[in-house]
TrEMBL record:
N-terminal signal peptide: 1-23
Identification of the protein by name: PEP-CTERM protein-sorting domain-containing protein
Keywords assigned by UniProt, alphabetized: Membrane, Signal, Transmembrane, Transmembrane helix
Segments crossing the lipid bilayer: 145-168
Keyword Transmembrane (UniProt): yes
Amino acid sequence: MKSIKKIFAGLGLIAAMTCNANAALITQDLIEVALDGSTGVIGSITINTDNALVDPVHGTGEVLSFVSFNFLGYDIPVDDSIFFQAIFDTNNIYAGIEFLDFDIDFSLPGWAFQGYFDAFDNPDFNYFTVFDSGSADLLFVNGLALGQASVVSEPATLAMFGLMLGLLGMRRKMQK
C-alpha cells in the first residue's frame, strides 16, 4: 500500500510540473550586425509566454507585449511601445523568439526605433532603425540578430514544486 501511495505522489508531482511546463520567461540579447559582419549586443528583450495567443495548428505562441526591453542602454517602458509582436515555438520554447517586430516611440532621448527579425527568412532582411522622433530623420540602420535564448520557468511552477517536496517531507516525518 505504501508503494502505491509513493507512486501516486510521484505521479502527482510530475503532473504538477508538466501542467505549466510551457509557462516561462524567454530572454534574448538583441545583436547588431554591421555591414562588415561585426556584431555587438545592443540590448535585450524578455517576454512572458504565459500570456501568449496560441495557434495549435502551427504550434506557435504570439505575444503582443514585453516584460522588459533594454535598447541602446535604455530601459523602455511598455507604454512607449506603439507596436510589438513576438512569436515562439510552443513545442520548443528553448529555441527562443522566432519572429520579432517592434515599433517604439521612446520619449526620453527623443528617439523612435523599429526592428524586424525572422529566424526563417533571409538574414539580410532583419534590421533595426533609429529615428529622431521630432524631425523623423534617420539616425541609424543596421542588421539585427537575436542571441541564445535564456528560459526561466514561471515562479508559480517552482513554488508548486517546492510545496510538493515540502508536503512529501512533512508526510514522511509524520510517519516516523
